[in-house]
Specification:
- The complex is a heterodimer of chains A (385) and B (389).
- Chain A is an alpha+beta fold and 385 residues long.
- Chain A contains 15 helices and twelve strands.
- In chain A, the strands form two sheets. In chain A, strands 1, 3, 4, 5, 6, 7, 8, 9, 11 and 12 form a ten-stranded mixed beta sheet that branches. Chain A has a two-stranded antiparallel sheet with strand order 2-10.
- The relative contact order of chain A is 0.19.
- Chain B is α+β, with helices and mostly antiparallel strands.
- Chain B contains 13 helices and twelve strands.
- In chain B, the strands form two sheets. In chain B, strands 1, 2, 3, 4, 5, 6, 7, 8, 9 and 10 form a ten-stranded mixed beta sheet that branches.
- Classes of the chains: A alpha+beta (385), B alpha+beta (389).
- Chains A and B meet through α2, α10 and α11 of A and α2, β2, β3, α9 and β11 of B.
Chain lengths: 385, 389
């Protein structure tokens, strides 16, 4: 136990330097956690996917719509329990910067396909009876200070013109990983206006959501759906919700890759800071180590002293960094909410951060310890500070 | 002054390992800082280069990208026949009416699916974009056939898009009969085919945009006012360069926000690193500082010398980081442009402004990191310092 006391005393000998090193490591661990969380946020959509839901979209690309008439054909396919459809609206509220997702849902049945959306009592009925009604996620309500009953104007980008919505209720996610920011309204509102203003564009929907009875048969049912529309003017691609979400993540492949590279570089930086400190420490104490050796302490003891000190500093930095993660991540979540409605603080991030701090502690000690162990006693004693 | 410079420089070379570690750490930080700025700059440059100030583009009002814009045939006709539009030797307007659609196709590497822009255009498109875009291999598509020409980035990155290959979309096989190069502009990430064929294949009878060459760039405002006050028209008119430049906003903002937060945090780490080094330098040289003071160097001079040393380290780090980052401009990356939803290839691009920002960033790290240790050095008492041994 004396060894621990010695390590502790050694670490506190240069209080300022130790404090700075701890701070440096904490900052790097914080950066690492931040990058990991941004990467995790890209995957939030994939992780919240239900295994018993399929998404059918146009084979050409997601920007092409599908005729609503396909719905009945899909419903008749064995294994399909329920079908709904969604359409991307892409309206602008006041300024393009105020981005959040707006979806036109077929009707209230869509909420049954998404049990993870907990909707206000009675709101679904109100939505059914209000032509321009909308149900809005609590996060977006809070972001703009909206109230139920308020009228919200949008400028359409895909559907031209000005659109007025009335908020009839709110929803919240069943847990933290569910996107609380969406704006959901009746597809009929678009449909009726298209029938009047642009008949060629009526009767079109963005994608179908299919609930199936057995997740294990997802592949077979997907094939059956696509086979139904093969060689028709509107060919489809059907995949599980997770695969569908994954394709959005794949679009950001380069960005995610660079974030991963940077998160490794961060560890490199901590290593440099910590190794620098330990190199100085060992250099200053060479004569002390020589004294210890003279007294009969082995190389292993010296390794333990230097390694222990290095580990202690690194782990302290790790702990401080992880504590800082909570307030910082919450701040970043607000800054990036247009991109990432869900900004998850994952347990895995903390595990990796802890592991990184530990690794840095060990690695930073290797070179100084090697030097301290191999210095000859005579040279060590002769050396002046 | 020369004395100070050589003194501080020699101090750096005395403790090579520590200096090298600090320089390397700072270099890494500056590298990341510069690389992030270069990425955002490259993305913007690519899209700015896509447009020309001589051209005006007509899109559906409110449509911020061509992929969601719809321009009626009648509007296209009116747009092309305005007096501000330049005409060619045959007296025809230099203008193209185009349809732009996204198709989902697979990349050569990794087999990931991504969205590629198909631009249905006219066979006189090189009249309009000839300065920017030139055919590098093969030939132009023949109007009325399922032939396409591929931008250099698409030809390289996507399966079936190379010269002589064929790619299938909208229920047809399209043969790639030529490749073109747009000098790194956004068009390099597109496939071009005959507008009528693309319209037929996608069953659309409207255009996405009309782009015209102006007789004189100065006529733009006049044309814009005329068109937007014309009650027959439901279009917005934009200067082409500005229009494309705007289409990198979401992605650039994302890169910048993440980049700034990361650089800030990295910067803190580097400042700490510099502080540790400089405090150690001060502590190791107590006697030296005492001697200097005894010789008559003022406190201010001592402060200056140590600050200078820290700045040296920072600038060295900055130089190392910038040199490393400059190699990044050889790297071409491609990612989805979240404004248009399509795959866009671009390069890291260095600019004088980025060099200056990076060096300032390094300088600030050095100043902040070196300040407190330099203050400590300047406060040393002569007698105690000399006795410290």
């Amino acid at each position: 136990m004396r060894v621990f006391k010695l390590i502790y005393k050694n670490a506190l000998r240069h209080k300022l330097r130790t404090a700075l090193t701890v701070l440096g490591i904490a900052v790097a661990i914080l950066a690492f956690g931040l990058l990991r969380t941004v990467i995790a946020a890209w995957y939030a959509g994939v992780n919240q996917s239900a295994p018993d839901r399929l998404i059918t979209r146009s084979r050409i690309s997601i920007t092409f719509t599908l005729p609503v008439a396909q719905k009945q054909k899909i419903e008749r396919i064995p294994g399909v329990e329920a079908v709904g459809h969604g359409t991307w609206f892409g309206g602008i509220y006041q300024d393009p910067k105020n981005f959040f997702a707006q979806f036109a849902f077929e009707d209230t049945s869509m909420f049954r396909l998404y049990p993870e959306f907990i909707v206000d009592e009675g709101a679904i009925d109100k939505l059914a009876n209000t032509r321009n009604g909308a149900i809005v996620g609590v996060e977006t309500m809070a972001r703009f200070g909206w109230q139920v009953g308020q009228k919200i104007p949008f400028t359409g980008t895909i559907y031209p013109g000005t659109w007025d919505f009335e908020i009839v209720g709110t929803y919240r996610g069943r847990d933290e990983t569910i996107d609380d920011s969406q704006f959901i309204f009746n597809w009929q509102y678009i449909e009726q206006r298209m029938l009047q203003e642009w008949p060629e564009r009526a009767g079109q929907v963005g994608w179908y959501v299919i609930k199936i009875d057995d997740p294990a048969r997802a592949a077979a049912i997907s094939q059956a759906v696509d086979a139904e529309f093969d060689n028709s003017p509107d060919e489809t691609v059907t995949e599980t919700e997770a695969q569908f979400q994954q394709s959005f993540v794949a679009m950001a492949g380069t960005i995610i890759f660079s974030l991963q590279v940077i998160s490794v570089l961060v560890i490199g930086i901590i290593l440099l800071v910590a190794a620098n400190t330990m190199a100085m420490t060992a250099r200053e104490r060479i004569s002390e180590y020589a004294v210890l050796k003279t007294l009969g302490f082995s190389g292993g003891h010296i390794l333990g002293l230097i390694g222990g000190e290095s580990l202690m500093i690194a782990l302290m930095g790790g702990v401080v960094g992880m504590l800082l993660m909570f307030p910082v991540l919450n701040g970043v979540a607000v800054a990036l909410r247009s991109w990432f409605p869900v900004f998850p603080i994952e347990a895995r991030t903390f595990q990796l951060a802890g592991l990184a701090a530990f690794g840095v502690g060990v690695l930073a000690a290797v070179f100084p310890a090697w030097r301290a162990i191999h210095v000859s006693i005579v040279n060590g004693l002769r050396r002046i500070g | 002054m020369g004395l100070f410079l050589s003194y501080t420089w020699r101090n750096l070379t005395t403790r090579k390992l520590t200096t090298a570690l600090t320089v390397l750490g700072m270099g890494l930080v500056v590298f990341v800082f510069a690389a992030v700025l270069m990425l955002g700059h490259g993305l913007q440059e690519t899209l700015v280069a896509t447009g020309s100030t001589d051209n005006a583009i007509f899109v559906r009002d409110g449509a911020n990208t061509e992929t969601i814009s719809l321009v009626m045939r009648s509007d296209a006709q009116i747009a092309k026949t305005q007096s501000e539009v330049a005409v060619n030797a045959e007296g025809k307007p230099i203008a193209v009416n185009e349809i732009v659609v996204l198709i989902n196709t697979t990349k050569r590497e990794g087999g990931d699916a991504a969205n590629v822009i198909i631009r249905g255009t006219n066979d006189n498109v090189f009249e309009l974009r000839g300065e920017l875009v030139r055919l590098t291999a093969g030939r132009m598509f023949t109007p009325g056939t399922s032939e396409v020409i591929a931008g250099s980035a698409v030809a390289k990155n996507f399966t079936g898009c190379g010269l002589g290959e064929s790619v299938s979309f909208a229920g047809r096989e399209w043969t790639v009969v030529g490749t073109f190069d747009a000098g790194g502009a956004g068009f390099d990430s597109e496939l071009w085919g005959d507008v009528d064929q693309v319209q037929q294949a996608f069953r659309r009878n409207i255009y996405s945009s009309v782009t015209v060459r102006l007789r004189d760039p100065a006529l733009f405002e006049q044309l814009k006012q005329k068109m937007e006050s014309d009650p027959r028209m439901t279009v917005d008119v934009h200067q082409e360069k500005e229009y494309y430049a705007k289409q990198s906003q979401a992605t650039t903002t994302f890169i910048t926000v993440v980049g700034q937060v990361v650089s800030f945090i990295f910067g803190l780490g580097a400042i700490v690193g510099a502080m540790i080094t400089m405090y150690a330098a001060v502590a190791n040289r107590t006697i030296e500082i005492g001697t200097l003071r005894a010789l008559g160097f003022s406190r201010g001079r001592i402060l200056f010398v140590f600050l200078l040393e820290s700045i040296w380290i920072a600038l060295l780090g900055g130089a190392v980081g910038l040199v490393a980052a400059s190699f990044m401009s050889l790297v071409q990356v491609s990612t989805t442009n979240w404004d248009t939803f399509s795959e866009l290839a671009f390069s890291f691009a260095l600019s004088p402004q980025i060099v200056v920002s990076s060096l300032i960033f390094a300088l600030v790290m050095g100043l902040v990191g070196g300040f407190l240790p330099a203050v400590r050095a300047s406060r040393a008492k002569i007698i105690e310092s000399l006795r410290a041994a």
